[in-house]
Amino acid sequence: MITAPPTDDVHLPALTEILLTVQDEILAALEALEPTARFRADDWQRDPVDLDDPPAELAGQAILQGGGRTRVLEGGDVFERAGVNFSSVWGRFSPGFAESMPVGDGDRFAAAGLSLVIHPRNPHAPTVHLNYRRMVRGSAGWFGGGADLTPYVLYEDDARHFHGVLAAVCGRHGDVADYAAMKAECDRYFRNRHRDEARGVGGIFFDWMRGDDAAGDAAAFDFVADAARSFLPAYLPIVCDRRHLPYGEAERDWQLHRRGRYVEFNLIHDRGTVFGLRTGGRTESILMSLPPEVRWSYAHAPVDGSPEAALLDVLRTPRDWV
Amino acid sequence: MITAPPTDDVHLPALTEILLTVQDEILAALEALEPTARFRADDWQRDPVDLDDPPAELAGQAILQGGGRTRVLEGGDVFERAGVNFSSVWGRFSPGFAESMPVGDGDRFAAAGLSLVIHPRNPHAPTVHLNYRRMVRGSAGWFGGGADLTPYVLYEDDARHFHGVLAAVCGRHGDVADYAAMKAECDRYFRNRHRDEARGVGGIFFDWMRGDDAAGDAAAFDFVADAARSFLPAYLPIVCDRRHLPYGEAERDWQLHRRGRYVEFNLIHDRGTVFGLRTGGRTESILMSLPPEVRWSYAHAPVDGSPEAALLDVLRTPRDWV
Questions:
Q1: A74-116: pLDDT as tens digits
Q2: Which residues in chain A have their CB less than 8 angstroms from residue B297's CB?
Q3: Does B140 lie at the interface with A, CB-CB under 8 angstroms?
């Protein structure tokens, strides 16, 4: 059961409704590709705490309230691991964290978001990540999120299709969404700086999005809702096409090593993961982003001139796809 | 080639000599257990930079000089991955980092250390980690390090043996080394706080160790040298015993999932790893600590009353082994 957060923000409940619908649509679409594997439902809810008079042991700490709908599919024919989570939470930031935020006032917050990571089994099919959320702090509210693609074999058509759908969404909301800026921000953010390479071929990424007035906020809301709904058209055709391609142990081994880079990004650099784990977020829901099976080898690198080397070139120097 | 750092600290060159010898002994002992697999040598050296007049693009950044002897064995019969690295480095801390250090003065440093992580293939044989180092900042120098054991199947005899050897080393240097305190510090440090469990059954861990005078520093040096030499007697008998035990897919699967917890600790919580990667350390040498093959599953947990559950009990509530 999703409990509404204690805030009079108008966009939180409206976005909650849309994201829950989108979650259901995504679950149904992914399951339709699976002969037998099904999503496991894990609904969770934090024990209520009086935020105005919390127990002494929570002094100085962040307090998280609310709950979520965690949905996970593992061991499928097409999807080796897929997590599609909605959560609606609120509470109190820790004092230090609240002060570091550039927007809003006070230490109370509320947030609703949809978050997914899909790891297909076939190395020809790319991993994909999506997150769309609204955050409210005191009197200010804003949107954030994005979607990005991580291929193991570079199919330029796939990158162009995925970016094309996102660019079209941004184009429909040109007053609030600048595709080129959000694409650049995605390349900047999803980068394994310790390896000087991007996590994947990118997509869009944005944060702190809000309008100058109620109409501007409503336009931002419309963009985020549209972007969330565009996930299936952006990703599904790619995985439908690629899941049947034959592959051998060499492609699988490359995929498992590249998944190691995915783990490195999420655990070392991703602000959401690191912040969530350090401040008492729900570990299993946060770490559902990790791939099911991963390899590391010393100084693992592709052969010059190979398709794997071509992928790395693109990861080192992000390209324009639209 | 190991170049001596530009410092007149007397313990750095002496510890370098000892740690290089210990490294060779460990390499030879591990190889002796392997029918055919051998360590691969990768010596590395940073391009020299004038620390008093560094290039403009390094303004405000940490600068690392020196080099190391990286040694890695992969795909062995006994050791699925083993990294045994010595490094001797020096340079300039970034301004913010230097100010955060409680000991020494200025932004120049020098350090020498031996670092190893061994991941055996057989789930009955534990992973082990060791690091001993000397760090010099300005006019102050100190020692740090330790060794700890991460079993996948709990053999209490193994934990008692490993801790017993470390306690005996500390006992021989009672003026500088307090086993009980270092054991407690190890339990505190190597903890996956986001899962409320220790990484393994611990060992010893210490930092900022220095004497009140030259004699005290010499005593600390003797302890560290002795501790480094005690690695083989502490670990080798365990892996010798356990490597032949039969196991099946269930034990392997458990091991791969527990290795996931090892990755989580190293990438999320380990100060050395995170600091190293963020400040331009050598990625491949730092990430050699990661296991070769790893699994994650949603809400992975052992059956009540199983040997795996018994291990988790010990990880949640560390025990005394001596």
A1: 999 999 999 999 999 999 988 788 888 888 888 899 999 999 9
A2: 74, 81, 292
A3: no
* pLDDT above 70 for A173: yes
- For A183, other C-beta atoms within 10 Å of its C-beta total 24
Both structure tokens of A2: 């999703």
A292 touching B (Cβ < 8 Å): yes
The set of catalytic residues of A is: 129
> B110 Cβ partners below 8 Å, 6+ apart?
B5, B6, B7, B9, B12, B89, B90, B135, B136
Residue A274 has pLDDT above 70, yes or no: yes
Paired strand residues for A132? A114, A145
Which positions 63-102 of B are in contact with A (Cβ < 8 Å)?
Answer: 72, 74, 81, 83
Tokens in use for B119?
Answer: 């991941």
Q: Please list, in sequence order, all residues whose beta carbon lies within 8 angstroms of the beta carbon of residue B207, skipping any fewer than 6 positions away.
A: B142, B144, B145
pLDDT-derived band at A37 (thresholds 50, 70, 90) equals very high
CB count, 10 Å around CB of A50?
8
Average pLDDT of every residue of chain B: 94
Cβ neighbours, 10 Å, residue A235: 26
d(CA A111, CA A99): 18
pLDDT at B279 over 80: no
User: Are the beta carbons of A293 and B298 separated by less than 8 Å?
Assistant: no
Contacts of B114 (CB under 8 A, 6+ apart): B19, B22, B23, B84, B85, B86, B130, B131, B132, B133, B228
Q: Dump pLDDT digits (tens) for A246-264.
A: 999 999 999 999 999 999 9
Euclidean distance between CA atoms B79 and B75, whole angstroms: 7
Residue A203 CA to residue A150 CA, distance in Å, equals: 10
Tell me how far apart the terminal alpha carbons of chain B are, to the nearest angstrom. 41
Residue B218 dihedral angles phi and psi, to the nearest 5°: -65, -40
Q: Phi, psi (5° rounding) for residue A309?
A: -65, -35
- Residue B5 confidence (pLDDT): 83
Q: Are B79 and B40 in contact (CB under 8 A)?
A: no
pLDDT reported for residue A205:
98
Partners of A70 in the beta sheet? A42, A85
User: Of A254, A262, A256, A261, nearest to A302 (Cα)?
Assistant: A254
Residues making up chain A, counted from first to last: 322
Radius of gyration of chain B (CA): 20
Is some CB atom of chain B closer than 8 A to the CB atom of A40? Answer: yes
Q: How many CB atoms lie within 10 A of CB B138?
A: 15
**Does the beta-carbon distance from B40 to A298 stay under 8 Å?**
yes
- Is there a contact between B104 and B136 (Cβ–Cβ < 8 Å)? yes
What six digits make up the tokens of A233? Answer: 């058209």
- With contacts defined as CB-CB under 8 Å, which chain A residues touch B295? 292-294
8 A C-beta contact, residue A287 and residue A223: no
